């Protein structure tokens, strides 16, 4: 188990967010689980971040995001299952909501119990344009690196061929 305090997520910055299954277990079990994770990501995270690249693999994922400044956050698009409105909007909490909702759905569907993801999730602040460009390639090449496909363009669970909407 990790015993360090993670880097805080600060608005107005780019981050490489990644995580894997607890004890390296799979976190995506079928096509619907990938779709469900993406729906939850859109629900909990899209209003507070711009996503530049993502890739979901069987036991881990990578996401490159820009965390919106407070005035850029689309508060009216934030929705929660257990509360009407969040008292505080923090990126780490939003990921917590995402991971909890996804874990509950997977546990129910596959009749399992316990945590699904490692805690805390990993994050690295993007501090240069060169790192940003290399990171986009790294994220999209991950399925090739792990032997899921021979070409980035053939892997279905990545943003490789999805245009960025601005």
Structure, described:
This protein starts with 13 loop residues before the first strand and ends in a 21-residue tail after the last helix. Helix 1 (31-44) packs antiparallel against helix 2. With 166 residues, it is an alpha+beta fold. It is 30% helix and 17% strand. The chain has 3 helices and 4 strands; from the N terminus they run E-H-E-E-H-E-H.
Regarding quaternary structure, what we see is single chain
- What is the radius of gyration computed over CA atoms, rounded to a whole number of angstroms? 16 Å
SSE order, one letter for each helix or strand: EHEEHEH
> Sheet bearing the most strands, described?
4 strands, antiparallel
Number of strands: 4
Q: Strand-residue fraction? A: 15-25%
Q: Which class of secondary structure composition applies to the elements? A: alpha+beta
Distance between the termini: 39 Å
Helix content: 25-40%
- Report low-confidence residues grouped into runs of 5 or more: none
Short description:
With 166 residues, the protein is α+β, with helices and mostly antiparallel strands. The protein has helices spanning 31-44, 91-109, 129-145; strands at 14-20, 49-57, 60-67, 122-125.
SSE map:
Elements: E1 14-20, H1 31-44, E2 49-57, E3 60-67, H2 91-109, E4 122-125, H3 129-145
Antiparallel strand pairs: 1-3, 1-4, 2-3
Helix pairs in contact: 1-2
Question: What labels describe this entry?
Answer:
single chain, 166 residues, alpha+beta, four-stranded antiparallel β-sheet, 3 helices
């Amino acid at each position: 188990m990790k015993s360090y305090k993670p880097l805080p997520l600060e608005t107005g910055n780019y981050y490489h967010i990644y995580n894997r299954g607890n004890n390296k277990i799979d976190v995506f079990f079928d096509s619907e689980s990938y779709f469900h994770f993406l729906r939850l990501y859109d629900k909990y995270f899209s209003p507070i971040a711009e996503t530049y690249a993502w890739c979901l693999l069987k036991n881990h994922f990578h996401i490159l995001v820009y965390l919106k400044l407070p005035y850029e956050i689309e508060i009216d698009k934030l929705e929660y299952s257990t509360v009407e409105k969040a008292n505080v909007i923090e990126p780490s909490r939003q990921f917590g909501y995402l991971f909890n909702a996804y874990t509950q759905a997977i546990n129910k569907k596959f009749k399992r119990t316990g945590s699904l993801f490692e805690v805390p999730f990993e994050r690295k602040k993007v501090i240069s344009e060169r790192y940003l460009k290399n990171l986009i390639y790294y994220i999209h090449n991950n399925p090739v690196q792990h032997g899921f496909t021979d070409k980035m363009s053939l892997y279905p669970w990545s943003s490789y061929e999805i245009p960025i909407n601005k």
